[in-house]
User: Which sequence fits this backbone?
């Protein structure tokens, strides 16, 4: 796989665009317009302007913004986002696999975070009477932690309170069945 393809595979176009001050939907940065016709599709990893017709991937976006070629654009993205691609030589397969494993772990953690937040909200809304008075404050604190906390807070919560969350999940399931 060539270096440009590796960058395309590893970089997220939304994060690249945000780094350069571009939002998912806005007026096109490549021509003058009054209504927003520029959009980015995260699922497809492309951008397109419905006004001037320009479009492409993250490499094309940076190339057009900085007026540089695709190779230089890929190097810029690699450096900015620390993608770990060696532009001076061969990138060993184990480094590519390690990067993919890290990205998969991040995605699994994100899924856990969202599911846990939903679980706590569902549980909070299901509480009644004395049980609600006893547990509401703690659950609201953890919900706030998951919404407003840092990644370190979330990791701490996962490590220390995952068993407690499993118990809540069991309680909810026992009420449904």
Assistant:
């Amino acid at each position: 796989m060539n270096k440009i393809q590796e960058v395309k595979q590893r970089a997220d176009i939304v994060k690249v665009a945000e780094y350069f001050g571009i939002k998912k939907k806005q007026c096109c940065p490549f021509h003058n317009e009054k209504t927003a016709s520029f959009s980015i599709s995260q699922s497809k990893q492309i951008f397109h302007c419905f006004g001037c017709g320009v479009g492409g991937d993250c490499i094309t976006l940076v190339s057009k913004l900085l007026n540089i070629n695709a190779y230089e654009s890929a190097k810029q993205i690699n450096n900015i986002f620390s993608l770990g691609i060696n532009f001076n030589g061969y990138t060993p397969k184990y480094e590519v696999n390690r990067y993919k494993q890290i990205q998969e772990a991040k995605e699994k953690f994100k899924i856990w975070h969202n599911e846990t937040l939903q679980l706590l909200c569902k549980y909070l809304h299901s509480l009644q009477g004395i049980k609600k008075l006893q547990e509401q404050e703690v659950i609201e604190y953890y919900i706030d932690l998951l919404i407003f906390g840092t990644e370190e807070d979330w990791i701490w919560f996962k490590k220390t309170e995952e068993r407690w969350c499993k118990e809540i999940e069991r309680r909810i399931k026992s009420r449904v069945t």
